[in-house]
Amino acid sequence: MHALPPALEIRGLRKRFERPAVDNLDLTVRRGEFYALVGPNGAGKTTTLRMVAGLLSPDAGDIFLAGVDARSNPVAAKRVLAWVSDEPMIYDKLTPLEYLEFVAGLWQVEAKTAQTRAHELLGWLGLTAHAQERCEGFSKGMRQKVALAGALVHDPQVIILDEPLTGLDAGSARQVKSVLRERVDVGGTVIMTTHILEVAERMADRIGIIAHGKLIAEGTLEELRARARGTATLEDTFLTLVAEQAAA
Amino acid sequence: MNIPATTLWFAAHELRLAWRDALAMLTGGRRKRAYVAAIGVAGFVVFMHAMALLGLRNLPDIGMNPSKTALVFISGSALLAFALMISQSMESVTRAFYTRSDLDLILSSPASARRLFSLRIVIMAAGSIMMALLLAGPFINVMVFRHGARWLSAYGVVLSMGAASAALAVGFTVALFRTIGARRTRLIAQIVAAIIGAAFVIGLQVGAILSYGNLSRFTFLQSDALASHLPDVTSFVWWPARAMLGDVHALALVFLASVALLFAAVAIFAPRFGDHALAAAGVAFERRRQSAVRDFRTQSQRHALRRKEWRLLARDPWLMSQTLMQILYLLPPAILLWRNYGEGAGALVILIPVLVMAAGQLAGGLAWLAISGEDAPELVATAPVPAHFIVRGKIEAVLGACALVFAPLITAILFVSVYEAMIAAAGIAIAVVAATMIQLWFRAQAKRSHFRRRHTSSRVATFAEAFSSISWAGAAALVASGSILALLPAIIGVLVLAVARALRPRN
Lengths: 248, 507
Description:
The complex is a heterodimer. Chain A is an alpha/beta fold. Chain A has helices spanning 45-52, 74-79, 96-106, 111-124, 140-152, 170-185, 197-203, 221-227, 234-247, and strands at residues 8-16, 20-29, 34-38, 60-65, 68-69, 81-84, 158-162, 189-193, 206-211, 214-219. By secondary structure, chain B is mainly α. Chain A binds chain B through residues 53-55, 75-76, 78-79, 81-83, 85, 89-95, 97-98, 101-108, 110-112, 114-115, 118, 130, 132-134, 136-137, 150, and chain B through 284-288, 290-293, 295-301, 303-305, 307-308, 311-312, 315-316, 375-386.
């Protein structure tokens, strides 16, 4: 019996703006894994994930999403993927339900299934009372939750989130984290970038540390600590490894 | 040194913002283009002077004792400008209320908000005056050149009209605020502004159609029939016209009355301006009434895109003011059509180019909103939809919206003449497709709320859209009149598209 391909496989990925933003990056994320990509500002995290989502063209390298070559067959790759950016982009003049119906239409989800799932998601995210209000008056947290519901309504195999907790209050952040954790518990794959190292520490199965466009370390929290000579927290580990890479 | 928080200090701050805003409008935000913009403005001024010389070449000198017909003509022309100035000022006031910008900073600072809002009302008047001067200045200069310095007093009338228009605009908008509330005012104020801006022109055209069976408002203004219904030449109604002709006493009275009106508006409305602006800003945070629960529908990807675009177009708060005037200007041709119903198709030669021109302009605006004004570009870009599907869905939404506006008019023409209806339909279709293609070639990622400034993102696209609409309107008119010369504007229309395509951004 063949093993299923990984959720995400990146090989030799390169992207250069004025300087190399992503430099010959190799990365593999297994199915059913919660993977956190951390790194200093400008390390190449967002650029990497934007290339995976098809929002940027790589200069070189291969990207496979659930075994589908995202560069040669982008439409098929996008079917298994959902992207949530740090700045929730939703339509102010649509209600959350209208937005979810639109997303379901784009991903060709059958109407009845989409409707049931939309109501469930809005319930989980505490938005049921606002389901028929236009999004124009929503706070950033509510908008982020609508965007997250949009990402989940088509039941993607892989969900990629760029700094999903930035600007959220404690309650909203907990709701988002719980929805993401449930997603992984039922076999989905979550890949996210974050500056909040405690989130990566608590939630991620594996953590990748990226600096200057290269993956400088990867593993479980324990593996990373061991590599950084037994530092206590992820923050210490992160700072030690980044400093070592800068000195090298 | 300028002392902070004084009126002078606020004035310097506001002028700096207004200057940068104007520069950004002219240069599309690219400072390197400033010299191109300067050349463009200079070219426009020269062009307007040439137009004024041409247009006024046969106008005889109107002395200090004008006839009633001359007074009607001058007053009518001034009222046209005044209506547009009120319309522009109302839009400025509405924007000042609903654009949050620096409101929090101003109202939370210890500086006098009343002083700043007073200044802003005056600056709105200045904006109106500047716009009027740009358009009317060349005509005044030509009159000064041809008939003497006394025509310089027309500049005084323009200043007076600017002051009065800002005062009336603030009064109207605040009255709307108090009567119908902050939420409805945004929409209603735009409709009222568009109606005021178009009403006088439309009224004159309707008068001309009903009296003479044509669209010429100037024929109507110069008619004895109209003059016979208006007050005697000694009436105060003609003071603005007399002021324009160089009557110093009339000018002084008109100027003082307008300035008094502006000061009264400032004194009455500036203290509450902040409260109204806060109420308007709160609209965005109010919960809209719940819409009815409706079942999801299974739909194709293109259908999903079309429905989304139609919903957003229907709910766009600023689209109304931008397109309503275009649609209102279709009223006189529609009346002309109604009046000529059953009397043959002769008048349709005038109607068809108006419709084609309006269709091109409307399609350009809608296409910009659908194609460039995508508020969730990343969602659409990460959806499993080929890029050409997305574009096609959006284009279909634009074509559908245009069809909804123009189909009834074409149907009406069909009852008068099948041949002319076919020409109108073909002209409208070509103008709509051409404008949409231009917007597609020059698409840029922008927020829908930047719709008003869409012309600044690409001058080439703006001019191409205008020239294309004019060319196809001309071609349609000539085809309708049976002239072989229709080929000429049609070829120009194709060339405009070819040049626009060649100049489109490659990235």
